[in-house]
Specification:
With 169 residues, this protein is α+β, with helices and mostly antiparallel strands. The protein has 3 helices and 10 strands, in the order ββββαββββββαα. β2 and β3 form a beta hairpin.
């Protein structure tokens, strides 16, 4: 087992979503106009914010779409918690909204740990006005799953999309 320690000044927690519209079989991506990179929406978790809240907030801020977590039947190492017995094998618990995966990125001396959630939204709804950071000039794009796989700029985003899709019925 490999073990490392990162102080709070050496890592950042981010959260994002793989947001789909189950009715139209489309996925939600963003394109950063500055670099033309296409990616899944994600961003830093705020202090005192849950991982789930951060993922949904960042998705809204970057896309203008209010997503909700998509319960999936996924294997997980998470425990069932009280009042259920801790002796139950929690790796197959039924529908859950736990993170579907994590990814890690190292830049300089900072480790970024990203928690990814499956989410759903209505691709036919209008894009809503939202607060934007000065450096976040994104174009929101809904596209078919196959087109999204082609359009994503990074291999790890394609893998994350595949993870979310493999558990959807």
């Amino acid at each position: 087992m490999s073990r490392t320690v990162h102080t709070a000044a050496q890592f950042v927690i981010s959260c994002g979503t793989v947001t789909v519209d189950p009715r139209t079989s489309k996925a939600l991506l963003i394109r950063w106009r500055k670099t033309n990179e296409c990616m899944l929406p994600k961003g830093r978790k705020n202090i005192d914010e849950t991982l789930e809240e951060a993922a949904l907030r960042e998705t809204f801020e970057e896309t203008g779409y209010k997503a909700s977590l998509l319960p999936l039947l996924i294997p997980t190492q998470a425990t069932l918690g009280s009042p259920r017995s801790s002796s139950v094998d929690a790796r197959h618990t039924g529908l859950v909204t736990e993170p579907i995966c994590t990814s890690q990125r190292q830049k300089d001396k900072t480790l970024k740990i990203i928690f990814w959630f499956a989410a759903k939204a209505d691709s036919t709804a209008p894009e809503l006005s939202r607060p934007r950071q000065p450096n976040e000039d994104f174009e929101t794009m809904w596209m078919t799953i196959d087109k999204a796989k082609e359009k994503l700029s990074f291999d790890d985003d394609r893998k994350i999309l595949d993870v979310a899709l493999q558990y959807q019925s």
